[in-house]
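Fill in residues.
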């Protein structure tokens, strides 16, 4: 039996953390929902979220800031777009010398997508104000940010 989290398979981590399929792809479990509320909504929530090599967090956006935290496994690429046109990619992981960072903030309303760069990646996502599915929007299938044409029009 493996002695560390990194020695486990994605299926073992999913089972041990009791993760369930997420609508955007991957597996998750909510681990915290702050009992304090503002305007009828929890002030923050947190989840475990796992992507394996065959899964992608499809393009989506939420109406709250989302902080991604790398916990274990391979690095992850998070792609973001503030407006559906301009996009950038960020590497979430622990190899600081390679430009990875263990934390990344996606501002409220920004489109986001993520892919594991290895067998699997386990992250945490903290959302404030708290995540609610009513404020979650999936992009249409196969949607990608569309670069602007010269002159600034899409």
């Amino acid at each position: 039996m493996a002695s560390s989290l990194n020695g486990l398979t994605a299926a073992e981590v999913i089972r041990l953390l009791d993760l369930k399929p997420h609508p955007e792809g991957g597996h998750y479990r909510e681990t915290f929902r702050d009992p304090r509320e503002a305007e009828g909504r929890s002030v923050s929530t947190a989840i475990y979220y796992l992507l394996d090599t065959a899964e992608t967090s499809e393009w989506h956006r939420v109406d709250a800031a989302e902080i991604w935290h790398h916990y274990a496994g391979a690095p992850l690429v998070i792609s973001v777009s503030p407006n559906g046109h301009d996009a950038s990619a960020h590497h979430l992981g622990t190899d600081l010398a390679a430009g990875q960072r263990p934390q990344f903030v996606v501002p409220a309303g920004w489109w986001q997508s993520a892919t594991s760069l290895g067998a699997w990646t386990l992250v945490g996502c903290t959302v404030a104000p708290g995540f609610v599915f009513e404020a979650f929007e999936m992009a249409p299938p196969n949607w990608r940010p569309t670069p602007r044409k010269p002159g600034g029009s899409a």
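The chain has a mean pLDDT of 93.
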